[in-house]
Design goal:
globular, single chain, two-stranded parallel ribbon, Rossmann fold, about 120 residues
Length: about 120
Amino acid sequence: MLRLPREILQEVQTKGLPTREVQDVAEVIGEADVLYVTRVQKERFEDQEVYEQVKDCYVISPQLLEKAKARMIVMHPLPRVGEISYDVDRDPRAAYFRQMENGMYIRMALLAAILGRA
C-alpha cells in the first residue's frame, strides 16, 4: 500500500542503483545516515478505510532511534500529524526544526533575488 510506484523503482534499477524494499524501518534504521519522514497523506487514498489501516504504521519514536546511528539525522517537512513522537524533538538527531528554519532563509533569499534586492 505504501510502496514506491513500480515505474519509479524500475527507473532507479535501470540506472544501476541498488534498491531494497522492507516492511519495517527498524530493519534498516541502523544503516541510515538520514531518515526523511513524511506523513501518510490521506488525500492520496481513494479508499479511506485503507488510509485508516496504514496511517499510523510508521511512527518514529525514541525506542526506534535507539537502533539508529548516533550521528544519523531525522528530517521532516513539517507539520507532522503523529508520524514522529514529540519525545523525538529532544533528540539531537532531530533536524526538522533546523530544516524548517533553513528553508525559510532559502525562500527569503530566493524572493530577494527575484525582486532584485540580493
